[in-house]
C-alpha cells in the first residue's frame, strides 16, 4: 500500500468524523427547540414558576380592607407622633415608636395592592373622621378627640393616648378579623392575621399601663 493511499484514507476518515460531529450538534439544537434539555426546558420551568391567577385573585372584601385600614393606620400614626414631645412615660413613647414602625410599612404595602388592582387609594392627610362614615366606627377618633389629644401633655397625655389607642386597636382587630374570614387575597389575609396578633398584644400592654388589666 502506497503512502498516497494511506493519506487519502486518513483524509476520508477525518471528513466522516467531522460530519458526525456536525449532525450531533444539530440534533442537540433540535432537542432544545423541541422542549428537551437546554434552554427550552429552562423556559418551561420559568413559566411554571409564574404565580397563577388564583394566587393573586382578590375580592371586594380585600379592597374594602385596604381602603379602610389605610386611613385607620394613618390616624394611628398621627396619634403616635404626638407622643414624642407630649408623653411623660418612656413606656408610652416606646409603644408609640413601635406602632409607627409596624404600621407605616403596612400602609405602603396596602397602597401597592390598591394601585395594582386599579382601585382608589385613600389620600394621606385626609379628614379621617369623615372617611366612609368611619367616625365612631372601628375605633376611629373624631376631630374633637384628636384636638383634645394634641392639647394634652404629661400624664394627662399618657392616659388619653392609651385610652384612645386601646379603642383604636380594638377597631383594627375587628376589621382584620373580618378580612381573615371573608377576604380572598392571600397577602391581605396574612397581614390581617398579623394585625390581630400584634394589636391584641398591644391592647393588653396598654391596659396594664392604664391599670385596667
How large is the count of helical segments? 8
Helix content: over 70%
Question: How big a fraction of the residues is strand?
Answer: under 5%
Summed up, the domain count is 2
Strand count, sense and closure of the main sheet? none
Structural class: mainly alpha
User: Which of globular, elongated, flat, extended, rod-shaped describes the shape?
Assistant: elongated
Radius of gyration: 32 Å
Explain how this protein is built.
The chain has helices spanning 3-33, 39-49, 53-56, 60-86, 90-117, 143-151, 154-182, 186-210. The chain has 213 residues and is mainly α. Helix 4 runs antiparallel to helix 7 (154-182), helix 5 packs antiparallel against helix 8 and helix 6 runs antiparallel to helix 7 (154-182).
Distinctive features:
77% helix, Ferritin, 8 helices, disordered N terminus
In short:
With 213 residues, the protein is mainly α. It is built from 8 helices and no strands. The chain is elongated.
Helix and strand topology:
Blueprint: H1 3-33, H2 39-49, H3 53-56, H4 60-86, H5 90-117, H6 143-151, H7 154-182, H8 186-210
Amino acid at each position: 500500500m502506497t503512502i498516497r493511499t494511506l493519506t487519502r484514507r486518513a483524509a476520508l476518515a477525518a471528513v466522516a468524523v467531522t460530519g458526525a460531529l456536525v449532525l450531533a450538534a444539530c440534533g442537540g439544537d433540535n432537542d432544545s427547540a423541541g422542549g428537551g434539555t437546554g434552554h427550552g426546558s429552562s423556559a418551561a420551568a420559568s413559566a411554571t414558576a409564574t404565580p397563577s391567577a388564583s394566587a393573586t385573585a382578590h375580592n371586594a372584601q380585600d379592597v374594602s380592607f385596604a381602603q379602610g385600614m389605610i386611613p385607620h393606620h394613618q390616624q394611628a400614626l398621627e396619634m403616635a407622633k404626638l407622643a414624642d414631645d407630649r408623653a411623660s412615660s418612656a413606656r408610652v413613647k416606646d409603644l408609640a415608636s413601635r406602632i409607627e414602625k409596624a404600621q407605616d410599612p403596612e400602609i405602603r404595602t396596602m397602597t401597592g395592592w390598591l394601585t395594582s388592582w386599579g382601585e382608589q387609594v385613600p389620600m394621606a392627610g385626609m379628614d379621617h373622621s369623615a372617611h366612609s362614615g368611619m367616625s365612631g366606627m372601628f375605633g376611629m377618633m373624631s376631630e374633637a378627640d384628636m384636638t383634645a389629644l394634641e392639647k394634652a401633655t404629661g400624664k394627662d397625655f399618657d392616659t388619653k393616648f392609651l385610652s384612645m389607642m386601646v379603642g383604636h386597636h380594638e377597631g383594627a382587630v375587628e376589621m382584620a378579623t373580618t378580612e381573615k374570614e371573608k377576604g380572598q387575597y392571600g397577602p391581605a389575609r396574612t397581614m390581617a392575621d398579623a394585625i390581630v396578633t400584634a394589636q391584641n398584644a398591644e391592647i393588653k400592654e396598654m391596659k396594664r399601663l392604664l391599670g385596667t388589666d
